[in-house]
Design a protein that fits this description.
- The strands form four sheets. A six-stranded antiparallel β-sheet has the order 11-10-13-8-9-12. Strands 2-1-7-3-5 form a five-stranded mixed β-sheet, with helices on one face.
- The chain is globular and about 65 Å long.
- The protein is built from six helices and 18 strands.
- By secondary structure, it is an alpha/beta fold.
- The N and C termini lie far apart (about 50 Å).
- The longest helix has 12 residues.
- Bound molecules: FE2/S2 (inorganic) cluster.
- FE2/S2 (inorganic) cluster (FES) binds next to loops.
Amino acid sequence: MNITISRKDGDPLSFDANADEKVLYAALRNRISVPYECASGTCGSCRAKLVSGELNDCWADAPGKKALKIRRGEFLMCQCEAQTDCEIRIPSPVAVQPHNKLPHSIPQSIPGSVSAFNQLTADVLSFSVTLERETGFQAGQFMLLQLPGVEGARAYSMVNYSEKTRQLDFVIKQIKDGKCSEWLFNSPKEGAKISVFGPLGHAVFEPQLERDLLLLAGGSGIAGMMAMLAQADQIGYLNTYNIELIFGVRSADDVFYLPDLKRLAQRYPDNLYVTIALSEVDNQSDVVELIESVSAVSKNFKIASSGFVHEHIEVSRTSINTMAFIAGPPPMVDASIRELLT
Ligand code: FES
């Protein structure tokens, strides 16, 4: 199938798409930088208009369709597959990525297998995917995982960082009735074949910007931030710039990645600030134990036994040179944005 994007600001752009391939993924695979955010049907930022041709809409009730003018032919590129040659329009400027972009970081489908399942807390699981060929990604990016027998793909941020790798590490929180979560928690099969598409996402660590970082994470939202910390560690970024991580979970039992955070905090006692914010403490003795376990590590490693992530932002440590990243449950993200804007 051939898809043509007609543009106000330039010549039309054409690219090929397979019949079972979402328009968004085909465009990105062809180095065309169309707009998107979630790549999974929830945000609505991949809105486009069908001028001619036929599409198959794979998710009729996608939340991202709320603001679309369906009668005018608007559709989500991340949810529709071309059934014939199509002409489409996109409301924002579209460009072709330069050829010098590293080929392994162009989004593509890669088969892989899952392994290394590790239950980190009662409802948080880590696992790895070994890919059949190398990929590259920026810290903070995510992949779409297609699991066997699960309809649709789900987005997960990589926890590890490497410029080029065949191994991707992920962390997932168990979600009631979540199909992916059910598969991974209840029937994980060491070595099971899956497929990933990516890398995707624009919220990435760019060391060349030379900024201090403020990382605000709720639960498994810490994934991409662990990748940023890993990269910062690899390139010695923390010898020059400050990074502050505020990591919110419910109770002491819900804390994960503690050994990794302790190791980093010990290595960069002056430039890495870590606060673990516990929002629902019902056993004070667990908290005391946790506080004792981090107090010897670094003066800048704290356990807060009450309050949400946004309540622990230390305004005196932020400046015009601070770049903030936020990930977690929507109420936590909204409260953090409001706090930062204020
Ligand atoms: Fe978010 Fe398509 S990119 S709905």
